[in-house]
Design brief:
- This protein has 238 residues and is an alpha/beta fold.
- The protein is built from ten helices and twelve strands.
- Strands 2-1-3-4-5 form a five-stranded parallel beta sheet, sandwiched between helices. The chain has a four-stranded antiparallel beta sheet with strand order 6-7-8-9, with no helix packed on it. A three-stranded antiparallel beta sheet has the order 10-12-11.
- The longest helix is centred in the middle third of the chain and has 17 residues, at 109-125.
- The chain is globular and about 55 Å long.
- Residues 3-120 form the Response regulatory domain.
- It holds the Pfam family Response_reg.
- Residues 132-229 form the OmpR/PhoB-type domain.
- It comes from Eisenbergiella tayi.
Amino acid sequence: MQKIFVIEDDENIRNLVKIALEGYGYQVLAFETAEEALELVGKEQPDLAVFDLMLPGMDGLSAIRLIRNRDDEIKNIPIIVLTAKDKEYDKVVGLDGGADDYVTKPFGVLELAARIRSLLRRSAEQQPVHGTGKIKMGGLAVDTAAREVVMNGETVSLTYKEYELLMYLIDNRTRVVERDELLNKLWDYSADIETRTLDIHIRTLRQKLGEEGSKYIKTIRSVGYRFVIPQENDNKEN
């Protein structure tokens, strides 16, 4: 039975989510604070965690960063953050802080369960979307064995999902990659799931790559994205 941590300070929401997910066959451990969850995360070894960002004491974002900085397998568990519907900033910082996806409040249990199911399925596959070795393209260098990204001599700190997104685009750089394909391959989401997760990941990935970020990752309007080497792209345009 797969185990899920739910960290939510609102008792009504916490109990609703716990009961609903147990109805889907998951073992659910629910916590009011991040400190309680972090104290047991090593012992309980959850398969996925759902974090509210606004928590008493330690906030959800700080807790997520602590999990991602662990030196054991727990650091790679899928994490979903719960955010307010009108707070775009929370979505960005949540994903940038290491979350894999977000669900906005108020949310339906069916939607949350679908996101959880997809992330758990993707996590269980554990299939890398790229090979191993060293890649050098323009000012961008990637050591895939160490999962290290360097731009113009400066190390770029990427979350797990940002790195996977970058590598998928690099591996498929000879073509335009459609949005639905990225959502399916990296999040295991079907086309009928509405989410801006991909948009936010693309935005933060470009920002982390610096001024040249938008040159490497091109938006193909109404289709998807394509990875290009800036020098090659500039030569084609001249």
